[in-house]
Structures are given as structure tokens and as C-alpha cells.
Amino acid sequence: MSLSDRIRLSDEVAAAQADGRPLVALETTIVTHGMPYPENVATALAVEEVVRAAGAVPATIAIIDGAIRVGLTAAELEELAGRKNVMKLSRADLAFALATGRPGATTVAATIIAASLAGIRVFATGGIGGVHRGAETSFDVSADLYELAETPVTVVSAGAKALLDIPKTLEVLETLGVPVVTVGQDVLPAFWSRDSGLPSPLRLDEPAAIASFLATREELGLKGGLLVANPVPLADEIPAAEMRAHIEEAISDAEREGVRAKAVTPYVLGRILTLTEGRSLVTNIALVKNNARLAGEIAVALQATAG
Ligand code: PSU
């Protein structure tokens, strides 16, 4: 089977490609492993609308029936969310799901790969994976960081998830040569909170400035992507001081239960949802929509730069 048989574009995405319209990739691990039903499906559909309102075309990515699907119908999203055996796919097992026909949701790493194969340069998510707390003994470092270093896709996030070790995550990104650009403020955001307490390595406030930075990286032939950190809107944030205790409790629960590897992030997100009595989900939904809007604007700006 050839690569073009493995990648199946929806009609909307194929038409956008043919017309040269800007596209924004969206991931599905957030749907299957990041949020509860039915908010997960409702959010995925709402996020697509936000991308359209920004003037771009959404391309939600998943592995279904041995193909990389780029652009899903509402019914396909609903079906994926309802299945029990959906794999959480990264670089190591993306091809495994394709070869075996298992359904799979794409993490940031796998979505970057799929987006790049489909010629999509901008991708919106909630928060990337990174270096987990205690990584000095567990060695738990998300493959998202290495994929950002390898593959030229711009990932719009609200920072790294605050359950991670953010200083170590920044160190690894710097070592790998991944630029981290915060929008609208000097401090790096921390997913549910606007302030991580750490200065952002770089700052740019306008989509056009981000597009021009990307064009300059291309001129130099630098490989890899760019991480955009977009702070959650003030009205929707949960301040870091308030999140700290919830995050610590959720992580110690995960340790006590022996939760490891790929299961850690979904478990901790679920515990934090309970501990915040649902508020973390409201914030998560708001920040993903906010990222989708910015990603749409960057995709439009990139098109203008190229044109
Ligand atoms: N953003 C969210 N919720 C999520 C994720 C992102 O708001 O659940 C997912 C992404 O797919 C990311 C994954 O790649 O969490 C990180 O998982 P891990 O820490 O196991 O690498």
C-alpha cells in the first residue's frame, strides 16, 4: 500500500488543499483520553467552528481502519469517542495502529507527523506533553518534545500541562532547538493558569510576526517546529496558587496507584477534574478554543506570507 492510500482527506480538507486555503490540524487524544464524554465530542466540534471563524479549515486527525484520517465527520468523532479500545498513539506506535487496523487517537507527536504528511503546517491543542515530575528516576519524557524538534509543524498550546516539570520541559526544548514563543505576555503560561512563574524564552504578539519568524527559520533551513504558548483568557483561568495543591494531590494519587507511562496524563487530568469539581474542564475547553482561534490566525498569516 502506498503512502497516499494511507492518508485519507475528508472532502472539506481535500477541497481546501486544492484551493490553497489555510488549514489547522487538530488532535484526538484530547477527545478519547483527555476529556469526559459528552464534553469531549462537543468541544472537538466547537473547536472546529472556531478554526472556521478564524478563516481556516479544521483537519481533525485520527487512525481509523488502517488509514490516517485527516478531517472527520461529526459521526466519526462520536464513534471514536464511544469506543473502548482506542490506542493513544505517538511516534512509536502510529504505524502499529495502521498495520493492525486498531483505532487510534493521535497525541501531539502523532498529530505533528500526520499533519506534516498531509502538508499542514499549523496545529492547535490544549497543552503539550513534556518532562514529568520525577523524570530523573522515571525517565518519563513525552515524545511530543522530540517530534517538535524533528518535524516542521507549529503547535499552538497553552504551554506545557502544569502537571509536568515545566522548568525541565523548557530545558529539553532548548536543548532540542525548539523555539518557545509566548503570545501577549513575558511569562510562560501553565495551561490552566496564565503564569507559570517562568520567563518565556521568546515573545511575539501578532500572528503575522509568528509567520515571519517561521519564514526566517525556513530560510535558514532549520528543521523542526515551533511551540506557541497562548495564555488561557483571564476570565477562564484557575490561578497557579490554587492549582498547585490539586496537581500535587493528583500526582501522589497516581504514584500510589502505580499509574505509569502513557496512563499518567489521562489519570492525573481525571483526578484534577474531580478535585476542582469540574472547573479544570471548563478551563481546558476555554483554552483549547483560544488556541484554535490563534492557530487559525497564524495559518491565515502564513498563507499571506507565502502568497
Ligand atoms: N491537551 C489537552 N488535553 C490532552 C492533551 C493535550 O488539553 O489530553 C494530550 C495530547 O495529545 C498530548 C498528550 O500529546 O496529552 C500528552 O500525553 P503524555 O503526557 O503521555 O505524553
From TrEMBL:
InterPro entries: Indigdn_synthA-like, PsuG. One of its GO terms (biological process) is nucleobase catabolic process. Its cofactor is Mn(2+). Its EC number is 4.2.1.70. It holds the Pfam family Indigoidine_A. Mn(2+) binds at residue 140. Keywords: Glycosidase, Hydrolase, Lyase, Manganese, Metal-binding. The active site is at residues 27, 161. One of its GO terms (cellular component) is cytoplasm. It is an enzyme of class 4 (lyase). SUPFAM superfamilies: Indigoidine synthase A-like. Substrate binds at residues 88, 108, 142-144. The keyword DNA-binding does not apply. Coiled coil: none annotated. Gene3D superfamilies: Indigoidine synthase domain. It catalyses: D-ribose 5-phosphate + uracil = psi-UMP + H2O. Binds 1 Mn(2+) ion per subunit. One of its GO terms (molecular function) is pseudouridylate synthase activity. HAMAP family: PsiMP_glycosidase. Belongs to the pseudouridine-5'-phosphate glycosidase family. Homotrimer. Catalyzes the reversible cleavage of pseudouridine 5'-phosphate (PsiMP) to ribose 5-phosphate and uracil. Functions biologically in the cleavage direction, as part of a pseudouridine degradation pathway. This is Pseudouridine-5'-phosphate glycosidase. It comes from Kaistia soli DSM 19436. The gene is psuG.
